[in-house]
Design goal:
Blueprint: E1 18-21, E2 29-32, H1 38-55, H2 75-82, H3 92-102, H4 104-107, H5 112-117
Antiparallel strand pairs: 1-2
């Protein structure tokens, strides 16, 4: 027979707002909780955002900023950009040439071997 992880008799009806939390640490804990509905949660989120804005630590997507252009190599992404819709296949030699044309700063000296390894994780 399996032993229960928590003792349900440790909580009573008079202990409103008291509950078990499991998965946070080594074993379950008895903690205080709060009931928050949708409108109350929106208020909490708005206040937290205002505090972060006042502190000055909001960046990126929170400020509607998109990702910055990367100068690094995105192997599969770069190969997909040079693969045209009307092509059923694209050989490594042609892929290397197209990559060199489109991203000379990063892919200028790519070889057939470089292109073959690029899409691999």
């Amino acid at each position: 027979m399996v032993k229960p992880l928590v003792d349900a008799t440790a909580l009573s009806r008079s202990g409103c707002g008291i509950c078990w939390i499991a998965g946070e640490g080594d074993g379950p804990l008895i903690v205080a909780s709060a009931s928050v509905d949708g409108p109350a949660a929106e208020g909490i989120i708005a206040r937290a955002r205002q505090l972060r804005e006042d502190y000055g630590n909001i960046t990126g997507y929170a400020l509607d900023e998109g990702p910055t252009a990367s100068r690094g190599i995105d192997g599969l992404g770069d190969v997909l950009k040079v693969f045209r819709a009307n092509e059923e296949q694209l050989f490594y030699k042609r892929t290397a040439a197209r990559l060199a044309e489109s991203r000379l700063d990063v892919c200028g000296e790519w070889t057939i071997t470089s292109v073959a390894q690029a899409p691999k994780p």
